[in-house]
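Thread: quick sanity check before group meeting

JM: Hey all, I'm pulling together slides for Thursday and realized we never actually wrote out the predicted structure for the chain we discussed last week. Dropping the sequence here so it's in one place. If anyone has concerns about the input, flag it before I start.
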Amino acid sequence: MRQSLAIVGLGMIMAALQVPSGANAEPVDDALVIDDVEMVTRTKAPEGHPFDEVLSGWLFREGETRELEADSFQNPGMLYVEQGADVWNRVEGPDGKSCASCHNDAAESMKGVGAHYPKWDADAGRPINIELQIDKCRVENMGLEPYKFDAPEQKALTTYIKNQSLGEPVELDLSQGELQSWWDKGKELYYTRTGQLNFACASCHESNSGQYIRADHLSQGQANGFPTYRLKQADMVSLHNRFRGCIRDTRAETPKAFSDELMALEVYVTWRGTGLSVETPSVRQ
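JM (edit): ok, ran it. Output follows.
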C-alpha cells in the first residue's frame, strides 16, 4: 500500500513538472536594481559547474514578486533587517555586551562578510555559517546561550548581517581547512535521490530548472538571497529551513538544522551561486 501511494505521489509530482500550454518558462531578462545598486543576477558559472550560466531565483519569479524585492520600502523582508539592527545593538549577558560592542557599525564591519560564508572553523573542525558564527560569538564573547534554530532574533540578526553585503558577489574560499572535502560531500548529497518520491535536489533545480511545478516556476535553487521573505509563509525563511522543507517534501527523513549533512549541502549550494550578488532579503513566492 505504501509503495502504491509513493508511485501515485511520484506521478503527481512528475505531472506537475510540466510547462502549461502556451506558458513561457524562461527566466526574464530584466535588471534588478536595489537602492541604486544593480545586482548581478546572471553570470558565468565557475569551472566544474553543471550550468554554463548561473541565474538568480529573482529571474524566475512573477512580476509582482520581482517588484517587491526591488523596492526596499515595499520589501517585507526589510522589517527583519530593522529588527536585526535592534538585536545588533541590544546589550545582553553578564558582561553587558552587544554585537556592536566588538564590531561597532555593522555597515562598515560587516560589509562583504555575508558573501563569503560558510567558512572553515578550525575550533569546530567543520564549516560554520552566519547563524553558527552568531552563536559562537554569543557563547564565547557575551556569556549567552546559543539561539534555538530559527528563533526570531536569529533570523533577524542573520538577515541584518547579510544585508550589509547587498550587491557583493558570492565567493567561497574552498582552500580553507577541509572545506573542499565538505564541498565534495555536499555535491554527493545534492545528487543523491532520497525519500519515497526518490528525488534529489538536482531533480528540480537542475534537470527541471526553468519548468513549472504546479503554479511555481523552478529556479536553479540558488542561496544568494537567503534568508528570504517567502510570500507563501509570510515570514522570513532561513536556508536550512528551506533545505529541511524540500527534503521533507520528498518524504525522506529530515536532517537537523546545522547537521553535517546540511552544512555540507550549504557549502556546495552556495558555491553553485558563485558570482551572483547577495540579495538578502530577497522575496520569493
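AS: nice. The longest helix spans residues 2-16. Residues 2-74+168-284 form a domain with the Cytochrome Bc1 Complex; Chain D, domain 2 fold (CATH 1.10.760.10).
JM: adding both to the slides.
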